[in-house]
Specification:
The chain is α/β, with parallel strands linked by helices and 183 residues long. It has helices at 12-29, 45-52, 105-115, 174-182, and strands spanning 5-10, 35-41, 59-68, 79-83, 93-101, 121-129, 142-146, 152-153, 169-172. Helices cover 25% and strands 31% of the residues. The chain has a six-stranded mixed sheet with strand order 4-3-2-5-6-7, sandwiched between helices. A three-stranded antiparallel sheet has the order 1-9-8. It starts with a strand and ends with a helix. Bound molecules: guanosine-5'-monophosphate.
Length: 183
């Protein structure tokens, strides 16, 4: 598995430090309020589970799963809900927690979909952001790291459902994609 990695882009230690800071910022901004944290499956699970343990405010946790049509490493923009929230968003302050914002299409869809349900407020939080890839404007309220245009895996992010368990954010070797395309 280590042989598939070209480079560590963000180390586990740097992630830990930044997630603590983000937890402090979010707890401060929502002081006195109750939060509904909406984790987006599956990529955000590891980030989300670390982040919520840094939050000192009362909160509920729920999940959505969406699929975007596209190939292995990019999205086409069409988004479909595979799993919806179980709790109602009425009278709730929502925080959408994503793994990465790339074109912005997924987050834009989620924001529009959830806004239509009329929560008290809605904000977005992502571990990673690739601003140079953006196709649509979308507001990111909390961002862990801005990264260059690499396809990354680890800390919840996958390639073909693999590599999610790696503790660092890593760049895969190009051969890994090329080998798979040949299969
Ligand atoms: P967007 O709709 O912003 O283009 O893409 C959002 C989704 O695409 C992310 O939630 C993630 O699943 C996937 N994605 C975008 N960039 C990367 C990347 O570098 N690595 C991985 N593993 N997934 C990515």
């Amino acid at each position: 598995m280590q042989d598939d990695i070209a480079q560590i882009l963000v180390s586990a230690a740097d992630i830990r430090r930044r997630v603590k800071e983000m937890g402090r910022d979010i707890s401060r901004d929502y002081a006195g309020k109750e939060l509904l944290v909406v984790g987006i499956l599956k990529g955000a699970i590891i980030f989300l589970s670390d982040l919520v343990r840094e939050l000192s405010i009362p909160l509920q946790l729920d999940f959505m799963a969406v699929s975007s049509y596209g190939d292995d490493t990019s999205t086409s923009g069409a988004v479909r809900i595979l799993k919806d929230l179980e709790v109602s968003v009425e009278d709730k302050h929502l925080l959408i927690v994503e793994d990465i914002v790339d074109t912005g299409l997924t987050l834009k869809y989620l924001l529009e979909n959830l806004r239509a349900r009329q929560p008290l407020s809605i904000r977005t939080c992502t571990l990673l952001d690739k601003p140079e890839r953006r196709q649509v404007e979308v507001k990111v309220d909390y961002c862990g790291f801005c990264i260059p245009d690499y396809f990354v895996v680890g800390y919840g992010l996958d390639y073909s459902q693999m590599y999610r368990h790696l503790p660092d954010i890593c760049v895969l070797k190009p051969e890994v994609y090329e080998q798979r395309r040949k299969k």
